[in-house]
Amino acid sequence: MTRIGRFAPSPTGPLHAGSLVAALASWLDVRAQGPDSRWLVRIEDADTERCLPGMGELILSQLAACALVPDEAPVWQTQRTHRYELALGKLKAAGLAYPCGCSRKDIDEALTRLGIGHTRHGERVYPGTCRDGLHGKAARAWRFAATTFQQASGEPPVHWHDRRLGDQQQDVAREVGDFVLKRADGPWAYQLAVVVDDAEQGVTDVVRGEDLADNTARQILLQRALGLPTPRYLHTPLVLGPDGDKLSKQNGATPLQTGTAGEALAALDAAAQRLGLRAISGHSAKEALAQWVAQWRDLYNSRP
């Protein structure tokens, strides 16, 4: 079987140390699975409000400087909106998507009335306010009827296996609620776009940062609802910022320096060590990558 992996950055800024860890891990994972396997790059620019002009091209040049070159031309989500419309239409026809008129304030107030709070960075569990109609409000988004779908399946918790983290489960209806697929003002939600793209590109192995592990159950529900295959998952360790949160441009992440071969190799070496691979010095990026493939195979490819 040909294994297909991908790296799918959002062009909100240049690559930094944390995003290179995910890129390197996804590349190594594919290369360790045989010469016929393929590595793809998808620029996830569906949320046009957050994306910056020229950042997609910059990210591709940074990857190339690190010898991380995709096997096919990169895909841009903004060129694929018709695919997401088709998927949303299928969910609507099945009674699994409905319009929602709730603002964030509306949801917070509803949760307060129910005596439910949320922690910093925690989910606002959607209380189902618009599940039976808009009640005179204008539609602000389309939501996936996760509660309805899980009840119909007869198995509320979604069980899945992560090749690094082990067995996982989440009751999406209880812990997340009916989640957004598309905002009324245009941008597509990550959950729907990534599911549609992974299936169409034939992705068999999703390797990404551990902060996205919590999204996996939602994506598996959508895969089932749309009749799409579920890939294998592996979530990598995070690089943390000075505040202890995931490294990002909001908490001090600096752009990768890849202008010289030495800078690119140093960036790759730091990413490899975060993944538990041994440091390699005195080699080009291509030579280092070839040696890390063997290490990756020993670490991860024996895991289901």
Automatic annotation (TrEMBL):
Record key words, sorted: Aminoacyl-tRNA synthetase, ATP-binding, Ligase, Metal-binding, Nucleotide-binding, Protein biosynthesis, Zinc
Ligase as UniProt keyword: yes
Residues given in the record as Zn(2+) binding sites: C100, C102, Y126, C130
'KMSKS' region, short sequence motif: residues: 246-250
Coiled-coil intervals, chain numbering: none
Domain Glutamyl/glutaminyl-tRNA synthetase class Ib catalytic span(s) in chain numbering: 6-260
Cofactor or coenzyme needed: Zn(2+)
Protein residues bound to L-glutamate: R6, F7, A8, P9, S10, E44, Y190, R208
Motif 'HIGH' region per UniProt: ranges: 9-19
Gene3D superfamilies: HUPs (3.40.50.620)
SUPFAM superfamilies: Nucleotidylyl transferase
E.C. no: 6.1.1.-
Protein family according to the UniProt entry: Belongs to the class-I aminoacyl-tRNA synthetase family. GluQ subfamily.
Xref: PANTHER family: GLUTAMATE--TRNA LIGASE, GLUTAMYL-Q TRNA(ASP) SYNTHETASE
UniProt cross-references to NCBIfam families, sorted A to Z: PRK05710.1-2, PRK05710.1-3, PRK05710.1-4, queuosine_YadB
Protein name per Swiss-Prot or TrEMBL: Glutamyl-Q tRNA(Asp) synthetase
